[in-house]
Amino acid sequence: MASIPFELRGKSVYVAGHRGMVGRAIERRLAHEQVNLLTVSRNEVDLRDQAAVNAWFAAKRPQVVFLAAAKVGGIVANNTLRAEFLHENLAISGNVIQAAYANRCEKLMFFGSSCIYPRLAPQPLREESLLTGPLEPTNEPYAIAKIAGIKMSEAYRIQYGADFISVMPANLYGPGDNYHPEYSHVFAALIRRFHEAKRSGASNVVVWGTGTPRREFLYVDDLADACIHLMKTYSSPEPVNIGTGEDLSIADLALMVAAAVGFRGEISFDTSRPDGTPRKLLDVSRLSSLGWRATTSLTEGIQLAYRAFCAERDGRLRSDLLVLDKAACITG
Ligand SMILES: NC(=O)c1ccc[n+]([C@@H]2O[C@H](COP(=O)([O-])OP(=O)(O)OC[C@H]3O[C@@H](n4cnc5c(N)ncnc54)[C@H](OP(=O)(O)O)[C@@H]3O)[C@@H](O)[C@H]2O)c1
Fold it and tell me: Ligand 1 centre from 284 Cα, in Å?
């Protein structure tokens, strides 16, 4: 097991999922750490392919792994693509964790999520609540796969002495988010909907669900900073929650996003759409005791995220995002 503090400088560090929102933020943060960054595209190594993953690890032998690759999506994607979410996330976790161990990786970080705690676990959610009750039905396949990844990291630590740790991020937002009209998370969906409504002059924006569920949102660059901090300072089997420790209702979030985008019309709620878990607020006392706290306020983060949304449209957008009019962006 590596000692604490764990030295990142000079190490070869593999960020799995480097084109995703989290992977990109970790890359940005690692630029300050003097590491030898390793990445590989899905075209070269599909992480569901065990033989390809083993061959790549044997050739590159990364010393440190951030396992931020996963099949990720909002409530509709999770509820619709149930087989894909279960199979792909199990395969990615199993292949990468085993290959990291087999190739003597010194340290690995696995990404869980606040949405894999039991649906009605006491709030704020403590790490000890994992596996203490039934899961939210809409994302049960994703949660089962993610819990398996956490338990794999724990088992490799206990049986083999591998320094594998797990983190549980809150809902994330920021540069590199997925703005798919059906499959995105709520934050990205709101940015896109309010932006398009403002651009088209629509008088009303419909928000899915009742607006009453409460959620916690963490700016993705804060997450990346916490991950580097934990990689250096944490080495235990229990996962660590990463969040702000503050939540708000979806209705209040919608008001804040509308204000940042400059949409001045009405907001209504489509109650035929599912709400998901009623509340998801993380207890961040373990993280605080390890010496880290979030620094980006939600107001500031929304402005940064909207600015990134506008910039990303200019050619670097994911193919599923419609081409939008740059002139319609007001970043405040
Ligand atoms: N987003 C959130 O709000 C949130 C909250 C809590 C936890 N997390 C966790 O954070 C991690 C990263 O999430 P994210 O939001 O960054 O997701 P994301 O933006 O969808 O990125 C996922 C990344 O994984 C890669 N990937 C997926 N399947 C792959 C495969 N078969 N082979 C190779 N690469 C593959 C994707 O590659 P392509 O670019 O080629 O598609 C992409 O780069 C996940 O483990 C997620 O559970 C996210």
Answer: 23
Based on the structure, what is the number of domains in the chain? Answer: 2
The DSSP secondary structure of 86-116, one letter per residue, reads HHHHHHHHHHHHHHHHHTT-SEEEEE--GGG
Query: Residues 14, 101, 117, 142: which is the catalytic one?
Result: 142
Has residue 129 been placed in a domain?
yes
Q: Name the residue range of residue 57's domain.
A: 12-173+218-242
Task: Say what the pLDDT of residue 304 is.
Answer: 97
CA atoms within 13 Å, Cβ hemisphere of 258: 19
In angstroms, the CA 232 to CA 37 distance is 16
Residues 98 and 137 grouped into a single domain: yes
For residues 223 and 77, state if they share a domain. yes
What is the atom index within ligand 1 of the atom nearest the CA of 69? Answer: 24
The stretches in the chain having pLDDT less than 70 are: 314-332
Whole-prediction pTM = 0.94
Q: Is residue 190 part of a domain?
A: yes
Residues 68 and 84 in one domain: yes
Give pLDDT, residue 3: 81
Centre of ligand 1 to C-alpha 294, Å, is 22
Q: Does 160 participate in catalysis according to the annotation?
A: no
pLDDT at 314: 61
- Give me the half-sphere count of Cα atoms (radius 13 Å) on the Cβ side of residue 104: 3
Residue pair 296/221 in contact (Cβ under 8 Å)? The answer is yes
169 in the same domain as 317: no
pLDDT for res 102: 98
Structure tokens at 195: 């932006």
